[in-house]
Amino acid sequence: MNEGIASPFGLGALVLTALFYWLMLRAGRRLRFLMDQPTCKTKGVFIGQVEVSGRAVLDQPLVSHLAEQPCVWFSYTVSEEWERWETETYTQNGKTMTRTVRRSGWNEIDTGGAAPAFFLEDETGRVLVDPEGADLEPVEILDETVTSESALYYGKGPAGHIPNSTGRRQFTERALLVGTPLFVAGRARERPDAIAPLIASERGEELFLITTRGEDRVQGGYRWRFWLYGLLTLLFLPAAAVFGSGRPGLWPIGLGLALAFLWLAGWFWMSVNSLIALRNRTAQGWSLIDVQLKRRADLIPRLVEVVGGLQRHESSLQADLATLRAQAVATPPGQPGPDIASTSRALLAVAERYPELKASDAFLRLQRELADTETRVALARDYYNAIATHLNTRLEIVPDRWFAPLAGLRAQSLLVAESFERTPVAVRLA
Asked: How many domains is the chain built from?
């Protein structure tokens, strides 16, 4: 090899090293994203990055085109085989000669599908999912190759034929069937048509995945890719260093050390960034509790308006509800906080005392909203404790504990019942 000139093999090794390095980092980022994000219930889906599992449902299910199965998403392809003989010219021993060769292949003759927004449902409720732009991993419900004698050939395929057709067609269809367990990882935002979250594609997000595989299998796939691409990167490093430098002496060693340092720097960057992202999600998890408690506190003045028309004990009722509102304030971890259960019990007692309220649709609706908010607060607390526990664990294990001081990270306090209780509210009923 000439000095200063890199060989084609060396350049190829450099390109492959860079490619495997990038694939390793991408797989590692996505693995960390999934590991650092607790899986929540559908009722506990809040705005931001989420992971949720449930069953695919649609109020008016689709019927797949080929297999005719009820589904929430499907895509199909019809291909037709062709075959022809071609004459080609070639040179042999200085003579120009011709020969006839057989060519064959498949042409796509029909494609289609449907991808409406559908619901992901579990025991707590449902959340809307828009599959547009997602990395979809559906199930294959049909894969058949038939001749023109099959009812499928013309029943689901075009009437005509492509040139040089062999009379064989391939029908394939993939779908998300109704009731299929799904795992969804993506970003939730406010729905445009309702006060509820929507999981949909968003520019710049790390991952938007809808899959029939479980979370453990998804993580296992990314973990396998991370170590595979990392190993391939290390294997191609020596070749890239020796043949890619184009220089004798210590140049290959220096280049190899530089590439190895780049590999370690990428791993360090990925680890620190994931810790910072985890810290921010932990802070967001705590803020979600505040949001839900604020929502509950805002519901109580509406209850005051509902009961304002009562003629007897009007002032007493409004005073009691004002007291409930004053005590419905979120507090930092470790400080006394609102007792949601006691608030709900107090309101039920007021409703029992005054049957006029039980007949009010507005009162009943607000009570349902209050109960729903209570459930959301409980789910938000579970979410915070799960993500805070994960953060605290990572801060204690090697090598993350070495990186934590560089990012200014420290352990977060968990919410416990004793630190989130308040003396029951005394409600005057007479």
From this structure: 2
Q: What is the CATH number of the domain that holds 313?
A: 1.20.1440.20
Q: What is the pLDDT of residues 281-338, one digit of tens each?
A: 777 667 666 766 776 666 666 665 665 554 444 455 555 555 655 655 444 444 444 4
- Encoding tokens for residue 318? 């409004």
Contact 213, 183 (CB under 8 A): yes
304-317 pLDDT tens trace: 566 555 444 445 55
Burial 125-145 (b: 16+ CB within 10 A, else e): bbbbbbbeebebbbeebbeee
Q: Is residue 56 classed exposed, middle or buried when 0-12, 13-18 and 19+ CB atoms within 10 A define those classes?
A: buried
267 lies in a domain?
no
CA distance 25 to 43: 33
Token output for 126: 């449902």
Answer with the one of 171, 196, 211 that is the final residue of a domain.
211
Sequence-separated (6 or more) residues with CB below 8 Å from residue 2: 246
Let me know whether 296 and 191 are in one domain.
Answer: no
d(CA 336, CA 304): 25
* 394 lies in the same domain as 316: yes
